[in-house]
Amino acid sequence: MTYQAASGGGARHMRELISQMGVIHNSVADQLDLNGAILDIDKRVAETIRSSDMPVDNFGVPLAGSLIPWIDVALDNGQSKEEWKGFVETNKILGRSDSPIPIDGTCVRIGAMRCHSQAFTIKLKQNVPLDEIESMIAEANDWVKVIPNARDITAAELTPAKVTGTLSVP
């Protein structure tokens, strides 16, 4: 599964996301002190996201405060073009175009400005100890950093906000 930032659509999409964030903020700015009833704030946010005030010329639907579960056009096989590209490009990079590795996925546009994220499962034909896999990944590229599967370090290190503008690949 890929979680793709607004930047994947280009600069116009990034600007639209910022505009959407501003519209949402402006709709509740007068209620953001600690005395504002959060359910009232939430209701106003939801109404704003669904309203015609939200700029959606580029995405077609609101992204701020939401997500878009489909990227690009539909293909005859039921995939989106972006999902198909994941299969094709991965096999091209790995030099496996003649004997492709089966890859299926879902591509979701998220409200991050930059920095796509990815979650994947690898099915192996033999048992390989986890520490060996982690070592292979860590040593494959100078930019790659293996993050332990622990709440605090995961929350601190595995976010677009942490790595955007860097060459780090956690």
UniProtKB/TrEMBL annotation:
Pfam families: Semialdhyde_dhC. One of its GO terms (molecular function) is NADP binding. Gene3D superfamilies: Dihydrodipicolinate Reductase, domain 2. One of its GO terms (biological process) is methionine biosynthetic process. Pathway: Amino-acid biosynthesis. InterPro entries: Asp-semialdehyde_DH_CS (IPR000319), Semialdhyde_DH_dimer_dom (IPR012280). The keyword GTP-binding does not apply. The keyword RNA-binding does not apply. Keywords: Amino-acid biosynthesis, Methionine biosynthesis, NADP, Oxidoreductase. It comes from the Eukaryota. PANTHER family: ASPARTATE-SEMIALDEHYDE DEHYDROGENASE, DEHYDROGENASE, PUTATIVE-RELATED. This is Uncharacterized protein.
